[in-house]
Write a structure and sequence with these properties.
Layout lengths: L1 E5 L8 H9 L5 E7 L7 H11 L7 E7 L8 H15 L6 E6 L6 E7 L14 H16 L8 E6 L2 E6 L3 H5 L3 H10 L4 H7 L1 H8 L4 H10 L2 E5 L7 E5 L5 E3 L6 H8 L8 H13 L6 E2 H11 L2 H14 L1 E8 L3 E7 L1 H18 L8 H9 L5 H12 L3 E6 L5 H14 L3 E6 L2 H9 L4 E4 H9 L9 E5 L7 H14 L2 E6 L12 H8 L1 E5 L8 H11 L3 H10 L3 E4 L2 H18 L5 E5 L2 H18 L3 E8 L2 E7 L2 E4 L13 E8 L2 E6 L4 E5 L9 E3 L2 E3 H4 L4 E7 L6 H7 L3 E10 L6 H8 L68 H48 L5 H36 L6 H6 L4 H19 L8 H9 L5 E6 L2 E6 L2 E7 L5 E6 L8 H9 L6 H19 L4 E3 L5 E3 H10 L1 E2 L11 E2 L2 E2 H5 L8 E6 L4 E10 L5 E8 ...
Parallel strand pairs: 14-18, 14-19, 15-16, 15-17, 17-18, 20-31, 21-29, 21-30, 30-31, 36-41, 37-44, 46-47, 46-48
Antiparallel strand pairs: 1-3, 2-4, 3-5, 4-5, 6-7, 8-9, 9-10, 11-13, 12-13, 22-23, 24-25, 24-28, 25-26, 26-27, 32-33, 33-34, 34-35, 38-41, 39-40, 41-42, 42-43, 45-47
Helix pairs in contact: 3-4, 6-41, 11-13, 12-13, 14-20, 15-17, 16-17, 19-20, 22-23, 23-28, 29-30, 33-34, 34-35, 40-41
Protein name: Relaxase/Mobilisation nuclease domain-containing protein
Keywords: ATP-binding, Nucleotide-binding
Pfam families: AAA_30, Relaxase, TraI_middle
Length: 1254
Amino acid sequence: MIAKRVPAPEGGGRGFVGLQEYIEQAHKAVHTFFGGVSTLETAAEEMQAVADVNSRANDPLYHLILSWPEFEKPTPEQAEEAVRAQLKALGFEGHQYIAAVHGDTPDMHVHVAINRVHPETFRVHHPRGDFYTLDRTCREIELAQGWTHDRGPHVVEYVNEEAFIIEVKDRQLLRSLSEGAKKVERFTGEVSLERYLRDNEALKDRLDQAKSWQEIHDTLRLVGLRLEPAERRTEGFVISETVSDTHAKASFTLSATEASSRLGPYQEDSRAQAQEVATILQELTRDKAVFTERDIDAYLKEYVPPDQQNQIKTELFRQAVHLVAEGLPGKRTLARFTSREVLAEEEQAQTAAAALRNQPAKPLDPAAIEAAIAKRTMRPDQLDAFRRGLQANGIGVVQGRAGTGKSYMMSAWMEAHRDSGHRVIGLAPTNIVAQAMIADGFTEGKTVDSILYAAKKGLLDWDANTVLILDEAGMVSNDRMKTLLELAAERGAKILMVGDDRQLPAVERGGLFADLGQRYAAGELTVITRQKEAGQNKAATHFSRGEFEQGMRIYAETGRLHITGTDAEAREALLERWKSDRAAHPDHDQFIATYANADVAWFNDEITRHLISTGAVTDARPLATDRGEQTLGIGSDILFTATNKTLGVANGSRGTVTGWGRGRMYARLKDGTTVAIPLTGKARFGGFAAGYAGTTYKSQGATIDRVYVHHTNANKDAAAYVALTRQKHEAVIFSARETAADWREMARQMARVMTKTAASSLGLAEEAHQPQPLQTQVQREPPKPVKPNPKQKGPHIPNSSGAKEQPDPRQDWEPAHSKASLHAEFEADKKAHSARLAVEMAVLRTARDKALAEVDATLAGEREQASRQKTPAQRRQAEARADRTAKAQRAAIRKASRRDGEALQQANPFPASFEDWLRRQDRDEAREVLRQITSRRDRARTVKPEHLVDPCKVMESVGERHGWTLRTATVGARIYRAATSHIAILTDANGTGLRWLDMVDQKTGSIRRLVATVMGKDIADASVKAETSRLYAEASAQALSPRATLHAADRRRLDATDLRQGWEQGTPLSAVPTDKDSIRIGPLSLGELRTMPAAEHIRLANLSTTGDRAAAVIVPTRDGKGEVKGFNLMTGIGHFRVQGQRPMLAVLGDVRTAKTVVVAYDLHTAAEHWKTLRPEDRASTAVILTSGSKYTLRDLKQTLHHVPAKADIQLAEPKAKALSGAMDGVKAVIAGRAGKVAGQQKGRGSEQGMGVGL
């Protein structure tokens, strides 16, 4: 087909009215349709009215013609679909149009009159390059509707029966590439490695001029490539990318024959290993300047093949710089290393610092100095550091412990320099600290990164009159510190640094600040004044000196250390303390400091729920943030997790929600300013979360009234020191006994070193350290023979060959807590929970009894008053009235008490069973015991004949074909023999096989292993897998007995008509009894199948192939109107292709709300992936079935528009070799969506994709 735009004639054309009259002529138009207008009769007037709104629309009419060849007759629906596709491609979606199909000529064609002016925005749209757009869309329509391919700028090229639309000029180039390279270029739009090698003449010339094999290796390494001999050929080479597995034949740019005749036999790259070692050194020093042999071993074991580990380790030790070893207790030492690059970086920083030191001191006005002193009451240590910092030439470093008044002293520095005529700039590693400096009086407060960016762009305006004051200098990485010192020295500026080398270090390589502090010290602040209470202040002083045992002793003696049984109990106890303190001190700031983000989220969620239930937070709403969905309301404390200079918020700053607006949330910051945070639109900001808890990193530099520390195994010296020195009034520690048994063990955990050391601060080792070789092969002791189990049912089958029996590897696993001890712990927890509940119930009963007593007292008083009535009748009436009132009050009190008791029990649930209790335990021992329990139960279920392939049936069907005969049959066992092998099968009273045992090799296991043993093949052999699948398929088909039967001509194809009939007559999954849930169909059991989305539409049928029967699962595919248009099939015997059905997208579940979206080839592949998902994640998972066809890629792209930006998209590829590469196009679509997810979020409309969820 072809499409073209009809240009308007000179002097104007017919206009909307004239063109409509032409295209609607009765003798020509066989089908008329329109869009964006009310009726066809008023279409021209409506389009003209819209066009008249825009006075600049000189030519509002766009006349389009689509034409098919004479032998092709599209239906009205196909014509409408083609027009809509062209409108979308041209950018006319939402515009008004009228169209008519003309049949007055041999070739059917469509006239389309389009209004260029949009009916809502009134903007004029002029499509660019519409000639090429129309032609390419014609090719897409031809592929979608099955028409022949016409000629034009674009052509359809078929690769392995898959069609690709390419430009004519690229056809010859494409045909010269391999099939894999063609797919890479078509699906990704990137140049393939083959094309790069073929077209790069400069690279060819360099390789042709190479004088040795090493020069060839070096040339390729410069462009990220490597040369290797081809694995499957005796001669020839391949060129691969160093960062991926992509490879191509070297003949595209290098002739193996010519190179071998010119350079001799091939030689390996001698510098490749050195290059790899340099990369490893970079990785080892990425976040620390000094590393140990243990760090080397851990990296090699994770990233390097075992056969190369020791060789590379030797080369690493040769290239690394050996530093002085660290002394350890017991006359032991710990070897330390660094790289030459790290030492060079630190030496450059020290050179710049020395240059600053040699600068003359900045002139200062004595009056300005005295004025700064007079405004403040500084301690002697502060005053000493203040004066020494002023006297420093070009660099001065002050170490100040947490809470010693560093900011107070820095503001005095700022005023003295500013009032002396200098430009003072406050620097900080984070935005929150930079904003705090501005709040303290600094005119300029900037981050180090912003300064380095300005210098890179040539916008830095420092000079000799500039004074830099750097706060929290210990958090600045070494590379940034080096650049900062070099910039200051180059421009003659002065830099004063303040920090604490014992607090949290830089995330990247650090430690340089501590070394600079020793060389250029300008004082030290040691007197802590932040903590008001004497005990807290004394403990903080111990922590600042690294004396964790003395500090923890104070916390234990003052009752501020709480150790409970489990981590869950510790979190609950901390939460209760937080609630009580908030009620007692509502005006105090509170902060929960923990280490893991998962714990942060738990605390924030629980506190938010509590505040909403108590009414402290109102009008709560779920919000989409950068950290997932958060529930916030008016009164919620929030913590900003990103910086937005437009809003005036910094990463780490805190605020309180004060109200809601139209698409906005209003928050009041700590400085009193109110910001309006946009929640929708282009300016949307999601960098915030609930702010009641946070990691220790978020609290560094802050002063908070009350701090609650959640101690875990990850807590080390710097993190513990920061967390326990933030408080103004009180800090409390909560921990689990399984984490630390007492305060001494907790102190030892906190004393573990987290701070970083500069390599230049250590001397070089006199002798090189000798590496210890890595043990690449684990030496195992020979297994002990398994003793007969006296509790085992059935006879014990002896080992006739005399060989030792192999034990189950899991039987050697001994948990730290056995099932018995864990069950005892469960009973103790249950008893303790019952005791706590009994105490609280007793409180409720006491309150009830008190209320009843008050009712009785009131009744007694009313009876006494009734006795004073004049007549007996009046006395009886008054007494009856009092009795009725008292009875109603007693009933109300008892009802309220019962309701409170039930609410108390519901609010404090205890696991209903031992298994539920194990699921709540975050311990390896509990998980292993739970696995043992559930696996035993599953095995017990699977011994039912209808749920398991009978081993005796295997021997009768498969064994007979491979020479196995029944040798002995006794009560409880059957023994089969073939040559020198024996297999024993344990049976029940009915003769049904339960378990099997290879008596010679002492093997047992699954049915598949039995089939492999009987066939004498490896368990991974394809024929073993096929035979096992057949056995299970027959067993499941017999157990289910579905009503409908599908007849397949072979094992790969199935007719769509038969499939539709099978689904219509099949057995609904909901009609299958749940006692059959353990029956497997393909990868999933029926129980697992019920958890899949759209399970209510699943139906079961028999599948009859070449003499076999199997159970089949059928899922329908529906269009936007809900009509069934196709089907997906899953069986236990592999993938099926449906004949007579166009490939289409199927969406199971709601992709708009899904947290996880699985994109799979077909239902069978999706099921294999489904069983790998965690049960708790399945409810929020949707599935997309694509078949990998090009016909579904556009639908997939549209459907992914509706997937939330934070959703995890997982790709499930088929494992069959015949289907390898089938999902290449899907991968490209997913990759494109990941790169454009932000744009899709902004422009996402209300359209649906072609695949509609069931």
